[in-house]
UniProtKB/TrEMBL annotation:
Membrane topology: Multi-pass membrane protein
Gene3D superfamilies (UniProt xref): SecY subunit domain
Designated gene of the protein: secY
Purpose of the protein: The central subunit of the protein translocation channel SecYEG. Consists of two halves formed by TMs 1-5 and 6-10. These two domains form a lateral gate at the front which open onto the bilayer between TMs 2 and 7, and are clamped together by SecE at the back. The channel is closed by both a pore ring composed of hydrophobic SecY resides and a short helix (helix 2A) on the extracellular side of the membrane which forms a plug. The plug probably moves laterally to allow the channel to open. The ring and the pore may move independently.
Pfam families referenced in this protein's UniProt entry, alphabetically: SecY (PF00344)
Domain of life from the UniProt record: Bacteria
The protein's name: Protein translocase subunit SecY
GO biological process, one term: intracellular protein transmembrane transport
Main location group: membrane
Transmembrane segments: 18-36, 115-133, 153-173, 185-203, 223-245, 279-300, 320-341, 379-399, 405-424
Length: 442
């Protein structure tokens, strides 16, 4: 990757795209520090800290949610809208037809996704404001800007407009990065949020090595940072190895004579990745299992002292095995569900047969579809086991570096960082390859 970056900076066009991408990402990070006027950020942060689901959202936004800044919602509404539209594309024939109409169809689906993003941003902003307001997190706005409880509805409208605008501006920045920069802008924004959260934690740990008088020096925090970095490198290397692993199914195409020309006769492969569904099963599983925490934590003031919070929540209590078991079952269920959406053996078998191809040793048609389905189910099983291990092993491994590092990288955060980094490297390589082709043609 470093060699690819070095070669990319030697090309003027690619270097310009990288600088545009970095500039837009800097604009996004600045927006994460712009406070909402009158907001009690300390109270806002305390509410987020006491809820597992909000902590996950806060990590993705790079700490913007806990600070209640302009980009507090981050890219979350757009991600949720994209997931909803992607799932509806499978079930609604009109959306399915649009997805198969090429560039024009994708443009229409993108426009529908933007409208859904606006709706979800408004709903999410209203939910955050009402629930946080019930715990006194926005009381400062009432007294500082709008002069009393009687104007509470104005406060809600004010904050809904601000947070919805922040979410839409974040989406716009992501789309501009995709259009003018390198890679997928939405993925890079999520990547930046996760990395910045981890970076701030490491920076605070290094600063804590110095006393208030900046005289004495404590080496223990530095040692913990070094141990954390070594463990992180090992975990990332293992995840990259599994992420790049794939099963290649050979396909042979028969020779066909059309007119005076002969077509076909070549061999190719169908690659099926172990982690083909990526981080989506984990996102769905954590979202569902964190739903009780989210609802009860926001609406029930005594939730922290409840039996569920003390014994089951987070999998750390005496009944934590129930939490772990349910989470693993959800990961398995969503892994197979998402694999069915991404990889359709019947369609692939039909396409192979129509183009005069066959899998060696397997008859075309239904036997090929059954063979592909069997292979896909086996690989999905190993992928689900891998995701289940990733859900618990990193936090356990990071605990050896210190309790402060357990939640530096969330489970989904690790997979997102790896997948985005690999995708960014592929984008740079494709840009360099296109440049080489252009130079060859000239």
């Amino acid at each position: 990757m470093f060699e690819t970056l070095k070669n990319a900076f030697k090309v003027k066009e690619i270097r310009k795209k990288i600088f545009i991408m970095l500039l837009l990402l800097l604009v996004y990070r600045l927006g994460c520090y712009i406070p909402v006027p009158g907001l009690d950020t300390a109270q806002f942060g305390s509410v987020v800290e006491g809820n597992n689901f909000l902590n996950l959202m806060n990590a993705v936004t790079g700490g913007a949610l806990a600070s209640g800044t302009l980009f507090a919602l981050g890219i979350g509404p757009y991600i949720n809208a994209s997931i909803i539209i992607q799932l509806l594309t499978v079930g609604i024939p009109a959306l399915e037809r649009l997805s198969k109409q090429g560039e024009e169809g994708r443009r229409k689906i993108a426009q529908i996704t933007r409208y859904v993003t606006i709706a979800l941003a408004i709903v999410q902003a209203v939910g955050v404001i009402i629930n946080f307001g019930s715990q006194g997190a926005i009381s400062g706005i009432i007294t500082n800007l709008f002069g009393g409880e009687g104007n509470l509805w104005i406060v809600y409208i004010y904050m809904v407009i601000l947070y919805t605008a922040g979410a839409m501006l974040t989406m716009w920045i992501g789309e501009r990065i995709t259009e003018y920069g390198v890679g997928n802008g939405i993925s890079l924004i999520i990547f930046l949020g996760i990395i910045s959260t981890a970076g701030l934690t490491l920076l605070d740990k290094i600063i804590s090595a110095f006393t208030a008088e900046n005289v004495a020096f404590d080496f223990d925090p530095i040692l913990e940072v070094i141990v954390f970095c070594v463990i992180a490198v090992i975990i990332f290397a293992l995840i990259v190895t599994v992420d790049l692993a794939e099963r290649r199914i050979p396909v042979q195409y028969a020779k066909q004579v059309k007119g005076r020309k002969m077509y076909g006769g070549q061999s190719t492969v169908i690659p099926i990745k172990i982690s083909g569904s990526g981080v989506m099963p984990l996102i769905f599983a954590f979202a569902i299992i964190s739903l009780p925490d989210l609802i009860m934590g926001l609406f029930w003031s005594g939730y922290a002292d409840s039996w569920y919070a003390q014994n089951i929540s987070n999998g750390s209590g005496p009944w934590g095995w129930v939490y772990i078991l349910v989470l693993c079952l959800l990961i398995f269920a969503f892994s197979f569900f998402y694999a069915q959406i991404q990889f359709n053996p019947d369609d692939i078998s039909k396409s192979i047969q129509q183009n005069g191809g066959f899998i060696p040793g397997i008859r075309p048609g239904k036997p090929t579809a059954q063979y592909l389905r069997k292979i896909s189910n086996r690989i999905t099983l190993f992928g689900a086991i891998f995701l289940s291990l990733v859900a618990f092993v990193p936090s356990f491994a990071f605990s050896f570096a210190g309790t402060e590092f357990v939640n530096v990288f969330s489970t989904t955060g690790i997979l997102i960082v790896v997948s985005v980094a690999l995708e960014f490297d592929k984008q740079l390589q494709s840009q360099l390859m296109m440049k080489n082709y252009k130079g060859f043609l000239k």
